[in-house]
Design brief:
Elements (H helix, E strand, L loop, with lengths): L14 E3 L18 E5 L4 E6 L3 E2 L21 H4 L4 E3 L1 E5 L2 E6 L6 H6 L1 E3 L5 E2 L5 E2 L2 E6 L7 E5 L4 E5 L12 E7 L4 H15 L3 E6 L7 H8 L7 E6 L9 E3 L2 E4 L5 H13 L6 E4 L4 E5 L5 H8 L3 E9 L17 E3 L5 E7 L9 E2 L4 E2 L4 E2 L3 E6 L21 E3 L1 H11 L8 H4 L11 H11 L7 E9 L2 E8 L2 E10 L2 E8 L2 H11 L5 E3 L2 E8 L4 H23 L6
Parallel strand pairs: 3-16, 14-15, 14-19, 15-16, 21-26, 21-27
Antiparallel strand pairs: 1-2, 2-3, 4-5, 6-7, 7-11, 8-9, 8-12, 10-11, 12-13, 17-18, 19-23, 20-27, 21-23, 22-28, 24-25, 29-30, 30-31, 31-32, 32-34, 33-34
Helix pairs in contact: 3-4, 3-7, 9-11
Length: about 550
């Protein structure tokens, strides 16, 4: 066995091996976990990482005991509880080795009696410390160890000692999260929003055993985002753990067994983020906003604080289309009856080194500055309903549902105007006295609403102004739009890409058509429509179908003219 282990080749391209030195003669660990790093491309740091874990075999006769009394355990508690993981990862951090894992609990005396040694047989003496739902156990002054072996009367386990990867995120502005089976377009749009809004240039994502795709697919989705120089997706196949609170027909259950998320926090802190400039802690269904606009990183630096905490606002599912794959731009209303969401944080690792523990909603042992300028938006509709059903459509009630204008503006800056086929966003609920849309455009809208476009995704029609009907759609995952503008009975048509990548794709598709490009938009000559509105709708339909067909031909290697 050499020092290089690697995962499968992805359709995105070749994987480049990262060598750790000669590891010949070292046995594989008993639970068949390996240290792997796969790099996609050579210029940017786009990686998948597999930790070096230690897991107790089922036959070993030892296991972690649940801390929760049987009477407070949900029906699914034992199915979700992590009985067997000793260490999620064993890795170098400076001159020390960190043993990162769930709290040892009843296993701690067994670990203190165990023998630990290197690949050369040199004895090691760990110190074991349980924290809140995780552990931070250390072996001091072992910078050259490449293999760790643990021996007890019941079992012997060995695993490679992973490298310290803090250099990947040195001086980076990092977006950090965990995820399982979230749609890849959600992950892409979540990261894109924070890149464009706050200047994020690195993403650290822990994939908690997704079954819909592999970590390399997540890297591939994120790699399409300009400016995202560092992408690390960590394979994290460990049990997430039973929840506390009011869940699964139990009320007020203690929060004592959801080890996975707390382990991720401390693992990220010490293996990856020690040298990061700053870190945003946000789930895939959360977008962080600064009320006055601008970057939360800039605000954090101005305060001089080690970090800031902020609460959030729930974004409802009202008003979203029911026949499309929905994303963030489809949800923009809040309910003024809801209490704020739980708090999150942005922090500077260099100023939180003395913190007792990184946690989901706080950093213990460090005074973080509460901020009212920052507020994250927590989207009810961006979820797989893994914990509770929350994505169902809610009827619009104008007495309690209000348009989040700061969110609408921020989404518009990143994704283009809202993907909606109703008029409430422009002159409906929020301004009922506004003028009604052009009758000509309403007829065209009705015609297009009846159409199906095989090669275009997420087609939505909405009015930007009474005389401007917008057809938003996606080609190859990139947002584009056609503006139909009523100029006193003449219809002008403009085609635009919503993002820089989309603009490049539009040029590829339309570059040989002879159409004029002005201000990033392709302009078709205005057409007079004296009668026969539906015939013009047919023409627009043909235009959209042609765009889809042209995109399909270009993907298949054909040349469209």
């Amino acid at each position: 066995m050499t020092g290089t282990c690697f995962s499968r080749k992805n359709s995105a391209g070749s994987f480049f091996e990262v060598r750790l030195g000669d590891m010949s003669g070292i046995p594989r660990c008993l639970d068949d976990t390996e240290w792997r790093v796969s790099m996609i491309g050579s210029a940017k740091k786009h990686l998948t990482v597999t930790p070096s874990s230690m897991v107790i075999p089922r036959h070993a006769g030892m296991a972690r005991k649940p801390p929760r009394p049987p009477g407070q355990q949900q029906k699914s508690y034992k199915e979700k509880f992590d009985f067997r993981t000793l260490f999620y990862d064993v890795f170098h951090s400076g001159s020390d080795i960190v043993l990162s894992g769930p709290p040892l609990l009843n296993l701690k005396p067994e670990m203190e009696r165990a023998d630990f040694s290197t690949e050369l047989g040199a004895p090691l003496t760990p110190t074991f410390t349980d924290l809140d739902r995780t552990q931070r156990s250390l072996i001091h002054d072992a910078p050259s160890a490449q293999l760790l072996t643990m021996t007890t009367p019941l079992v012997t386990l060995s695993t490679e000692v992973s490298r310290d990867l803090g250099h990947l995120f040195a001086n980076r502005k990092v977006l950090f999260t965990k995820s399982k089976n979230n749609r890849l377009d959600w992950i892409h749009d979540w990261a894109l929003f924070h890149v464009e809004t706050h200047g994020v240039d690195a993403v650290l994502l822990y994939d908690n055993g997704s079954t819909e795709y592999v970590p390399e697919d997540v890297v591939e989705a994120l790699a399409r985002i300009p400016g995202l120089d560092v992408i690390v997706v960590v394979r994290w196949p460990f049990p997430f753990g039973p929840q506390g609170g009011n869940w699964d027909r139990l009320t007020n259950a203690p929060w004592d067994s959801d080890f996975c998320e707390y382990g991720i926090m401390e693992h990220a802190r010490y293996r990856f983020l020690t040298g990061a400039a700053a870190v945003i802690n946000a789930d895939i269904d959360e977008l962080v906003l600064l009320g006055a606009g601008g970057s939360v990183f800039d605000l954090l630096m101005k305060t001089g604080s080690p970090g800031m905490t902020y609460h959030g606002r729930w974004i409802e599912t009202v008003g979203a289309p029911t026949d499309a794959l929905l994303s963030f731009a489809d949800f923009q209303y809040f309910d003024d009856r809801r209490v704020p969401t739980t708090r999150k944080w942005v922090a500077r690792p260099s100023l939180t080194r003395d913190a007792a523990q990184w946690k989901t909603h706080q950093i213990s042992g460090v005074d973080l500055t509460p901020s009212t300028q920052i507020q994250h938006r927590h989207f009810m509709g961006i979820n797989s309903d893994w914990k509770r059903a929350r994505t169902h459509q809610v009827p619009l009630d104008p007495t309690v549902h209000h348009l989040d204008r700061d969110l609408t503006a921020a989404l518009g800056r990143v994704f283009g105007p809202s993907h909606r086929d109703d008029r409430a966003l422009v002159w409906g609920l929020d301004d009922p006295s506004a003028p009604q849309p052009s009758e000509l455009l309403l007829e065209i809208q009705a015609r297009l609403s009846e159409s199906r476009f095989d090669n275009l995704k997420r087609v939505h029609l909405w009015f930007y102004r009474p005389n401007c009907l917008v057809v938003d759609f996606r080609v190859d995952g990139l947002p584009m739009a056609v503006d139909l503008i009523d100029e006193s009975g003449r219809i002008a048509v403009k085609l635009i890409g919503r993002t820089e990548q989309a603009k490049v794709r539009v040029r590829e598709l339309m570059g040989k058509t002879g159409l004029v490009e002005l201000g990033g938009k392709y302009h078709l000559p205005a057409v007079a429509i004296p009668t026969g509105h539906r015939s013009f709708g047919d023409g627009v339909e043909k235009l959209l179908r042609a765009i889809g067909t042209r995109a399909l031909e270009s993907r298949d290697g054909g040349v469209a003219s």
